[in-house]
Amino acid sequence: EAGVAQSPRYKIIEKRQSVAFWCNPISGHATLYWYQQILGQGPKLLIQFQNNGVVDDSQLPKDRFSAERLKGVDSTLKIQPAKLEDSAVYLCASSLVFGGHYYEQYFGPGTRLTVT
Amino acid sequence: TQLLEQSPQFLSIQEGENLTVYCNSSSVFSSLQWYRQEPGEGPVLLVTVVTGGEVKKLKRLTFQFGDARKDSSLHITAAQPGDTGLYLCAGAGGSQGNLIFGKGTKLSVKP
Q1: Can you tell me whether residue B36 is helix, strand or coil?
Q2: Is the pLDDT of residue A102 over 70?
Q3: Residue A107: closest CA among chain B residues belongs to which residue?
Q4: For chain A, N or C: smaller number of CB within 10 Å?
Q5: Inter-chain contact B45–A93, Cβ cutoff 8 Å?
Q6: Which of B41, B45, B103 sits opposite A42 (nearest CB)?
Q7: Minimal Cα–Cα distance from A41 to chain B, Å?
Q8: Across the interface, which of A42, A101, A112 has its CB nearest the CB of B102?
C-alpha cells in the first residue's frame, strides 16, 4: 500500500512570495490533515478535511493560508504572502474514520519550507 | 486548552542503557499515541493506548497510560543506535479526535 505522498520536499522562497504544497493521501482515506511543525516543536494541526469538507480550521491563519481538497482526494495548502515565521515543515496526514476513540493517522514525509 | 508536556526534552545515552520518557497533562485524553520521527521524515505511529492503566509492549519498548488517562510513559530497555530519533506523544481530544502533540523528546543513542 502506497503511503502519503507530498511535494515538493523542499522549498526556499523570499518573504512576501507565495508557495503551494501538494498532498496525495492513502487511497480510501476520507480524512486529511495539514500540520505545521516548527523546529524543536511537535506538529500543530492547521486544517482537517473530511472528504472535501472542512471539519476544523480553527488554527489556520486565514489571512495568508488557504487549503482545498477538491473531489475529496488530493489537497493543496497555499501561503500568500509568506512571512519569516512560516519557516517550518508542513506535514500532511490521512486516516480512515473510526467510530471509536481515536483515528490512526499516517504521515507523509513533509515539505520543508524556508522563508528568507 | 489541552497541553502535553514531554520530558526530558533531550536525552543522550550510551548503547545498552535504559531510559524513560514522560508525557504529562492536566487534561484527560480519550487515547494517547506515541510516534517516532526521524530527520526528514514524518512521524510514524508506534502505539496507541486507550484504557487507563494500560501497558503495551513492543519488543524493547514499554508504553504505559496513566490510570487517570492524563499521563503516559515510554520505557526503552537496552537502547540501540537505531532507537535514535524524536519521540512524540499525542493525545486525542475534541469531538473529531484531533491529535494534540507534545514538543517531543530528542533521543540520541551512541554506540
Answers
A1: strand
A2: no
A3: B42
A4: N
A5: no
A6: B103
A7: 4
A8: A42
First to last CA, chain B: 41
For the stretch B14-52, pLDDT in tens is 999 999 999 999 988 888 999 999 988 999 999 999 899
Cβ contacts of A107 on chain B, cutoff 8 Å: 42-44
DSSP element (H, E) containing B1: none
E strand map for A3-110: 5-7, 10-13, 19-24, 31-37, 44-50, 53-56, 65-68, 75-79, 88-95, 106-107
The torsion angle over the Cα atoms of residues B47, A75, A54 and A51, rounded to 10 degrees, is: -70
Q: Which of residues 17-46 of A touch B (CB under 8 A)?
A: 40-45
